[in-house]
Amino acid sequence: MSKQKINVNQNILNMEYAVRGPIPQRAAKLKEAGKEIIFCNIGNPQALGQAPITYYREVISLLEEPSKISRERELKSLFEENSYSNLRDEDFIAEDLLALSEKILAKTGKGLGAYTESKGFRFVREAIANFINKRDGFNTTNGLEANPDHIFLTDGASDGAKRVLNLLIAKKTDGVMIPIPQYPLYSASIKAFGGNQVNYYPDEDRDWALDRAALESAYNTATEQGTDVKVIVVINPGNPTGAILDSASIHEVVAFAKAHQLAIIADEVYQENVYGGEFISFAKALENDKDVLLFSLHSISKGFYGECGHRGGYLEVRNVPQVEGAEMDFVDLLLKQASVSLCANTVGQIITYLMVSPPNGENAALEQFHNEKEKVLGDLYEKASMVRAAFAQMEGVEVFGKTGAMYLFPRLNKLPAGTTDFDYCMALLEETGLCTVNGSGFGQAEGTHHLRIAFLPSKEELEDVLPKWVAFHNRYVNG
Q: Are 268 and 297 spatial neighbours (Cβ–Cβ below 8 Å)?
């Protein structure tokens, strides 16, 4: 007996998401069968052994169970009164963090179990505004301060991106410019919301720089085909490329967006992952230009924190326009949209607060936080360097751009006739257990082949698998 059939949204049916596509699905099957798999297909740090930052987890544990605050103090008092105890002072949560947790609890009003405002806790949005102002040098003198009322707490940056795209794509002819290669969230969301994807191509050989001519070419081709281009997406540092945009590229985008009255979605979730490079925010580049609508995204999932599962982030809006045909502005409309979901999850909101409010002063908590942060970022850069060194031993492999984000996106200049980067990545998985994502899953310039690897496994795992990858590669491309 055949199953009943149901008609569904074809946009959802047709969308693709390569980072959890056929290769990771095959990897999961191999793992079930007992093969050792190293999952480098997604930027999921804690899944590959990165330890959580103690500062975040200790505060969250106290907020989720406030009775532990007084209990911690009582236990420490007993410890101090009994010299025979084997415990040490560092075995207890620092008083600074106990006091901070009390302060946060007071600001939440009812703890973390209740709904918040649809925009998120006000005190968190104020802290985000302070973070942006400090990062970009905004103050009352230059009049560029971030407005807490124009900030929304979201369930990760992906949630913020989808909210904006859902509102901006109003008809089938509306177009969204996205970089190729791109993070598949954008292509999938454009497909889901019924818009047109307009590809533009950063210059790989110039370290993925953006130039005005390439942007204009993409825009003109789309408009000639009847697309109403409304917004351009920029990911900096890049995903999947890992490249860090230079100042000239960022200002080219701003000038281009202004010339064509486009909004900018600036995906800046990897701004901490620059490993000695320089991150320049689009808000900073925009400065006092009031003619460009800017949506900036940040997240707790990346950086050195890696709190992917807690789904926290924010969306900031600058140069808010009026909504055509309605007596409201775009922030009002975002609020209306956010209200349907009530609010972002509260633990994610609080970790976002902690992300933008690191410990300060001279205390053990600050020292531990600093040491853990530097270790994570140092290890990431060291592991990226190990992978880059392996590429140098692989025939026909090139990688461009300064190391940023959590990824490398090598170009495979030599593959056997009739094979693709998908075939390569699947064969690499089968032989070595290394799960990567084929470049075609992100989009790429015609005639090129790539793969993306997240350099998140432990150094020990990389030391073991990289020689196997080198041997596989040189045999495969000459087979």
A: yes
